[in-house]
Amino acid sequence: MSANRTASAVPTALRNRPRPITLLSLGHACVDIYQGAVAALVPYLVSERAYTYAAASGIVLAVSLLSSVVQPLFGAFTDKWSMPWLLPVSTLLGGAGVALSGVGGSYALTLTVVAVSGIGIAAYHPEAARVARGAGRGSHTAMGWFSLGGNLGFAAGPLMVSAVIATGGLRASPLLVVPALAGAALSMAALRAVKAPAATATAAAGAGEAAARDDWRSFVTLSGAIVCRSIVFVGLSTFISLYARQRTGGGDLSGTAALFVLYLGGAVGTVAGGKLATRYGRIRVVRWSYALTVLAVAGVVHVPGPPLYLFVALTSAGLYVPFSLHITLGQDYLPRRMGTASGVTMGLAVSVGGLAGPAIGAMADATSLQTALTPLIALPALAWLLLRTLHEPVVAPSDPPAGPADAAAPARAEADGGT
């Protein structure tokens, strides 16, 4: 009798605790707020320090370039060793770099501290994606909620920068460290909540990896599509604030609003992506998302006035519906190297788009911002063509999300991910 009472009490106690996916999603928001913050700093660097477009975009490049190199490296490390301590430590590092970006007027110093922030952001994502995959038991929706946290962080970044920097100038940037402190605390709470389930999932995944094969051809093709997405997203996130001011005739607020819409629209897209993939399949959903994005980006570049914001929202949704699906597809194409897959899909392929930033800025300096943004229209079409060659990956039967010993796991994970 006492055993039955104990067994029934355990689920009740667990239900009263914050679920790991919720904590991980909130922690993810506190990290990615700094990716959004870096792009939002560009107009203030241009106005207060008289940076050119190319120089300002170099600040974004400092984050993107380091992430492209370092993030897959951390992913490879997490394939060999469990490194959960990276979550709180990297969160603090990412916040500290951005918080110091307004201290001193040296361009070299600004590049250095923002680069440090990029290392922190890069170190966070591979291990966090691995932990989230285990906590969500392979659910597309659960990974969507985890990715949603990052998207909300992106969206909040410009608002945070606007509130702090517009009020106190670049010298007030140390106040930007506050989300990092909260994110570190949330990460530690998430790790405590997920510790036992993650250990079980890791052991089961090890058995699945023994029978699985890595599909490098499909993974490289997928990465090519992600690179196309990255160039579009980084190009727009770097210059949309300035471009919106030109096209709408508004001031600073109109530019901040456009960047906010670009990031916030991703919140809807990410959640919708997980749910649509559960119903229609990941590959089909990702293809149609890129087809929509071609038309949406064309509207952003060529439609003037307030309708610009509608096309920014459509572009955001089109770019973000595939975001969490890229992560799980990459992990399933490389089941033996999930950390590496996460590092590339969330790091290298995503951040390499930052390499195009200075080129777009230089073209804008030489011609106009509209001319420089026009080539972005073709990239979603190229991504769609690449994805036409891909197939839905086959998950190993012994992998925890699809294992015959736990056939109800995906349904439970869908429920868990929605809180």
Overall spatial form: globular
Number of domains: 1
Helix content: over 70%
Number of helices: 17
CATH class, please? Mainly Alpha
How does CATH name the architecture? Up-down Bundle
User: Which structural class best describes the helix and strand composition?
Assistant: mainly alpha
- Report low-confidence residues grouped into runs of 5 or more: 1-17, 196-210, 397-419
Task: Characterise this structure.
It is a single chain. The chain has 419 residues and is mostly helical. It has one domain: Up-down Bundle (Growth Hormone, Chain: A), CATH 1.20.1250. It is built from 17 helices and no strands. The chain has helices spanning 2-15, 20-49, 53-80, 86-99, 107-135, 140-168, 178-211, 216-248, 252-280, 282-302, 307-320, 323-333, 338-351, 356-366, 369-373, 378-387, 409-417. Helix 3 (53-80) packs antiparallel against helix 14 (356-366), helix 8 runs antiparallel to helix 11 (307-320) and helix 10 runs antiparallel to helix 16 (378-387). The longest helix is centred in the middle third of the chain and has 34 residues, at 178-211.
Question: What attributes characterize this protein structure?
Answer:
419 residues; mainly alpha; Growth Hormone, Chain: A; disordered N terminus; disordered C terminus
